[in-house]
Amino acid sequence: MEFEFYYYLIFLATGVIAGFIDSIAGGGGIITIPVLLASGMPPHIALATNKLQGTFGSGMASFNFIRKGFIQWHEVTIGVWYTFIGAALGTYALLLLDASVLAKTIPLMLVAIFIYTLLSPKMGENDRHAYLGRHLFFLIFGLGIGFYDGFFGPGTGTFWTIALVALLGLNLKKATAQTKVMNFTSNVVSLAVFLYSGNVLLLVGLLMGIGQLIGAYVGSNMVIHKEVKFIRLFFLTMVALTLIKLIYGSYFS
Known about the structure:
The protein is mainly alpha-helical and 253 residues long. Helices cover 80% and strands 0% of the residues. Helix 4 (73-94) runs parallel beside helix 6. The chain is globular. Keywords: Cell membrane, Membrane, Transmembrane, Transmembrane helix, Transport. InterPro entries: TM_pro_TauE-like, TSUP. It is a multi-pass membrane protein.
């Protein structure tokens, strides 16, 4: 596919904005996918190209968090492996099954997360006691959320962040950082499948990826330097916007 020059400028700007938002609270896909679809791309091409550009953003955010000491490899290695397996299974299942049932059930889960976060003003301010051991946690959520991201995707970052805070006892900054590593892992797995199937528009994906690098760098630095209250507000906003988009797309479009 070829586009007018101004479309490429829009793709670049969209990548910057989405990378910034996604590195702080997730939800960048609610910006990128509508833009890709509005350009005239078929849905399967738009989703595949979105994975390419999103990989750049989650990769940059992960690198920045690691560089600043917010992530210790021994804390996430087991999660990366389980997420890798889950995402591979989910992407394979996507080729065989219909994801429409998830489109109608996931909004209900996001409503619960939004209410829980709204009613927990101190959520994620400090580290606290973990309710699950790290290995068991990643066995359940690495496979589960990894599968979900490969199979469907919207809200993945939200599910990771809330699980890491509520069940592993991480503060919101650490949870956001570890979420990006898991996002990057599942993005890479799904992207490999899409590249093999030839559904990715490389030029568009790479251009948006450059934008993602810029936005994710700025956004991840804000997570590092801002207070948890700012991150929580941003998180709530993106959960609400993701919820509105999913409900509208599932029940009213």
